[in-house]
Structure formats: C-alpha cells, structure tokens
Amino acid sequence: MRSRLPVVLVLPAVVGLAFLLVPLAGLLIKAPWATLPAQLFSTEVGQALRLSLICASLATVVCVVLGVPLAWLLARSDLPGRGVLRALVTVPLVLPPVVGGVALLLVLGRRGVLGQHLDQWFGISLPFTTAGVVLAEAFVAMPFLVISVEGALRAADPRFEEAAATLGASRWLTFRRVTLPSVMPGVVAGTVLCWARALGEFGATITFAGNFPGRTTTMPLAVYLALETDPDAAIVLSIVLLLVSVAVLAGLRDKWISGPS
Amino acid sequence: MKRVLAVAALVLAGCGSPAPAQTGVSGNVTVFAAASLTESFQKLGKEFEAANPGAKVTFNFAGSSALAQQINQGAPADVFASAAPANMKQVTETKAVTATPTTFAKNTLQIAVPKGNPGKVTGLADFAEADLKIALCAEQVPCGAASRKVFEAAGITAAPDTLEQDVKAVLTKVSLGEVDAALVYRTDVKAAGEKVEGKDFAEAEKAVNDYPIAPLDKAPNAAAAKAFIDYVLSDQGKKVLSEAGFAAP
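ok -> structure tokens follow
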C-alpha cells in the first residue's frame, strides 16, 4: 500500500497548479468561441502561425548546435573563470527581452559594431528579416537549453567517461557515445523549453526584427497588436498559439520522452 | 518628522472631506496619461505639486488603448489623458467617464530621419522607395492610423520594412540609424534630442491628432482631479505643452 501523500507538499503543489492554470482558464472562459474557426483559417493568422513555428524551430536548431557544446564546456572543461561564464550565460534570462533586442541592434544592426561590416562587405542586413527573428529568439531561448543540459552533465556520473577514456576513446568519441546518451533526457527537456520560449518570444523579436506581416510578424506580435484594437481577436489568437504548442509538445512527449527513465 | 505628520494629516483630511479651500487641493492624484505625454506631464506634475503643497501627482504612462483597458477593468485613476479621441470613447462607452472630455492639445506627424539624413530623405514621396529602410507605426495604434491618412491624402503607397507597436519603438529605430525614415509625432522628434531630425510635410494637416482629458467618475480624489485638469488647461499648462511641440487646441 502506498503511504499517504504529505499535506505539506500537496497543499502548495495544488496552489501552484491553480496559480498556473487559472489565468489559462480565464482565457478559455472569455474566448469568443464563435469566431475561433474564422480566425483559425484567416490568412494572416495562418501566416503568423507558420512563421512562428518555422522561426522557433530554426532558433531551437541554432540553440542545440551551439548550446550543447557550450553546456559541455561549462560542465566538463577546466576553463578559468567558469563560474563567471556560467553566470554570464544566464544574462539573457534576466535581461528584459526588449533590452536584449536593443543589444542585438547595437551589435548586429545596420550601424552595429559587427552589423556595419556585414552590411558593407556582404550586403547583409539582419534587422527586419526572418533571419533576424530566428536570431532574436535564439538569443533569448539558448540559456534555457544550456542550463538544463549543463545541470544534466553535472549530475551525470563522470566515471563512465573516465572508463571510456582509459579504454582509449578520444574525448570527442566519449562525448558522442557516452556523455551525450547519458544526458539525453536533459538535452530533450532543454530543447523543449528552448522551443517553447522561442515560440512565445515577443520583446527581443519586435525590437530587433521589427514587425512586418509574412516576414517578421510571429504570433506573439500579432497577439500584441490585436490587443490594441480588438481584445477578443487577441484572445482567440493566443488560444490558437496555445493549442498548437500544447499539441506539438504533447506529441513530442509521447514520441521522445516515453515514461519515466 | 513634523512635516511628514502634517502632510499625512493633510492627506487624511483630503480623503475624508472636501479639501480645505485656503490650502488648495491635497492628497494623491493619479493620472493615466498617453506615453507621448511623458515629458510634458512630468514637468506639469512637478509644477502642480509646487503650486499645491500637500498634493502629490502619480503618473501611469502607457499606450492610450492599454490605459483605456486598465480603466475599464477598474484601475483606481483620477484623470485620463488620451492621445486619441477613440481611446477616450472606450472609457465613455463603459461610463467610467461621464464628464465631457476637453481637448487640451493637438499633435501632428513629422518625418523623422537619423542625424545627418543618410537616406537623403526630402519628403513623403521617399516613403515609396523600396531601397530605403522605412519604419511606421502599425495601423492598430493611433500614430499608424494617422500615417495611413497622410499617405492616402498624398496618394503614396508606402513601402515600410517594419510596422512598430508604438511610436517610441519607431523612434528607437530612427535614433539607432536602423531605418532611413519614419513617421512619428512632432513631439517625439523634439523629445529625441539631436539624434533625430524632423522634417515637416504638407499632408500632416490631414491627420491632426486631438488629445482629450477627463476626470474619472470613480476618481478617488475628485477635487484634485479637477484641479489637475484645470492646471493642464491653464496658460502655464499650455506653455509647457507648446514647448514640448504640441499645438494648442
């Protein structure tokens, strides 16, 4: 027989759950359901939704390709000043996203430190482009991936890696065949977090990439602007975004994170 | 300490009964004002406090439509100063405001270019140029609606690269040099200082924006609300507003 759940844990857990779900319920209750199908199939919403999904996914790819090695570096190398680096990596978490967007403009904008050379030498201008949206989302979302992968790496038993090394495996082979499989749940969780954060990104995106339908207007931007004139439409748009993200995450969960590991 | 107590007593007196006539108004007055009024209203607020010892002005600056929504959701404001009659209408429709709003200022659009005018923008016609980077307000916000009016009046199809969520975001893009030209309010060009240059254009007259102000029906401090509105409408108030680039109503 299972022992009774301790009240001291269950009570705050239930309050926490309610705290997260009640605002959501508010959205659902207030939603003008009659207009939902029309909104769902309007071209603007379709366009914004498609752009959101593409950009969030591309941003997640960027984050995984750069973030997993970064997490490994922070967890496993004996780099001097690792603690400071670790703190710096989390800066985009603390920074108001709008400030992150301004920072990106200052570096990659047309007059930015690097951006002016990109513009002069290659004719590349990132602000107001879809690539800019991907960059802005990756900037804000990457810390989520790095932190969860790094946490998993630090919790993983290093003796397996040492064993692999004593058997003659190179560090790269060890990373691929031993380290990465052992921290896979952390990588998956980090990737999911990262994708979800990128999907909901607003501040850095609108500041760095601007807002132009079909090019940089993602769902959160469309929601914000709808709120200015038509709060009902904004609620419907948020629900569309919510349903799609929950569907994707639930689908992935069944596929990749099957049962407790 | 004595002063603090005296002020506290004044505040309490202000809450319970009509303000004593000889000391003017007292207590806290909460003003919800459009973001474009930030600089001028902060100045007016300080002057109002100096003229009415014991009164304290608290501002909530945001986009007019966000403020209207907050008021309709029951935010405890005394005064609402909107950047557009449409947003004032949102609160009169719900009877949060039943007094007749007074227009206290007018604002017109101006072409904003980064210092030095790198895109060599001379007039509204340049906004149709695809090679130039152009920022406009989104049509859902007042400055975007005004921009559409002037382009319609001029018969120009603008080719914007971005439709920003508010006028200050447009201004940021101009002052950072990310865009060659934008349409913002004259007052925003003034507030931006020397990083941004403003250029007048004839069609601006087609989209003059009225700023209405009104007390709220449920104002916690009705006497101070009236006094603040009177101050905004006074000659001194007009002076501060015209210094910020607003035209008189």
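Chain B has a mean pLDDT of 87.
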